[in-house]
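#lab-general

N.A. 3:47 PM
ok so I finally got the sequence cleaned up, no stray characters, all 397 residues accounted for. can someone with queue access submit it? mine expired

B.Y. 3:52 PM
send it over

N.A. 3:53 PM
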Amino acid sequence: MSRLVLEPAAGPPGAATRLSDRSPAPDLARGVMLLFIALAHAHMYLYNSDSSGFRGYDLNGGPVDRFVAGLQVLFVDARALPMFAALFGYGLIQLANRRIAAGAEWRDVRRLLRRRSLWLIVFGFAHALLLFFGDILVTYGLLALVLVGMLRARDRVLLWVAGLWTLVFAALATLPAWAIVIEGSPPLPTSVESPIEAAGQRLAIWAGLGPMLVLDIVTPFLLGIWAARRRLLDEPGQHRALLARVAVAGIVITVVGGTPLALMDAQIWTDWTTGTAVAAYAMHSVTGIAGGLAYAAIVGLIAHRVAGAPGRVTIALTACGQRSLTCYLLQSVVFVALFAPFTLGLGGQLSDAGASAVAIGTWLTTVLLAEVMRRAGWRGPAENLLRRLTYANHHPS
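B.Y. 4:20 PM
back already:
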C-alpha cells in the first residue's frame, strides 16, 4: 500500500502546477536559503593574489574578515545543504502526490522521478563544465535516483534509517576532516588562468565531490519526506508547536556543534591539537543537519505569520524560491564573471568580507529578477527546460 499522502489534482496530467497554487513556505525557504548558498560558494572562488592556488577563508585576514569567516562557519557552511536536501525530499513527495492524484500509477511516478533525476545530473554536468566545480545538482539527482523507493517506505523505516545514517555519517565525517587538518584544503581550479584547463579540473573535482556529498544529505532528505507526509510546511499553522521545537533545538545544536570550528577559523582559538580539530570539523558537519532543519522550521513559522498579508519582501523571496534552479545557476554565472582569473579576477583581490558582500549583492539581484519574472508571469527558464525534458514523451499511465 502506498505511503504517499494524496492531494487534489492541480490540473491535467503533465500540466505544470500554477505558482499561485503552490504552498508558499517551501518556496520562501528556498528563496532565503539561496542567500546561504551564495555566501557558502563565494569564498570558494577566492585564491591567492599571485594565482598560486585556492585560498578559501583567509587565515591571515584582518579582524573583520575573521569575524565574517567565523560567522559563516557557524551559521552557513554545512547548514544550507541539509536544508535544501530536506526541501528536496519534501518536494518529491509533493510532485509524486500530484501525479498519483491525477491518476498515475506508482511505477509511472517512479519512472518520471528517475527521469527527472537523470536530467538533474545532466544539468549538474553542464554547470560544472561551464561554471562551478561545487555543483550540487548532481548530488540531488543521484540521491533521488538511488532512494526514490523511500518515498513509499513506512514512517518507522524512514525515521530508523535517518537515525542510523546520522551515526554512519558521523563516522564518515572524520575522514575528510582528518585530510583537511593534516594536508590542508585540496587544490581547486579557482586560480587556473586558462578557461579550458579550468573546465577540465572542474569536471574532475565534480565527478568525485558530487557523489561524496550524497552521504552528507541522506538524513535530511528522509526527514523531508517524513515532514511532507504531515504537510508541516504546507499547513504550518497546524504544526506550530512542532516547528517551534525543531527551530529552537536545531539552532542550539548547530551553534554548540559549530562553535569550536568557528573559533578556529576566526583565529580566536589557536592552540588546538590535531585530534581536537578533527573532532571540531566532524561535529560541525553532523550538527549542520540540525541547523538546516531548524532554518526550514523557522521559515515555516514565518510563512504562517505572514500568510494573511504577505509583504513585498516575502512575495519576492517566494518568487525567488519558485525559480530556485534558475537563481542558483545565475549565482555561478555572476561569480565566474567577477571572480575568475580569466574574467575580472576579483577572486585574487577580495577579502572574505568582500566576497560575502558580493554574495549578498548577487543574491539580492536574483531576488529582484525573480520578482520581475513573477510580475511578468514567467517561470524560470531553467525550471521550464527541466520540465520539458522530464515530461518529453512521458505518459502518466
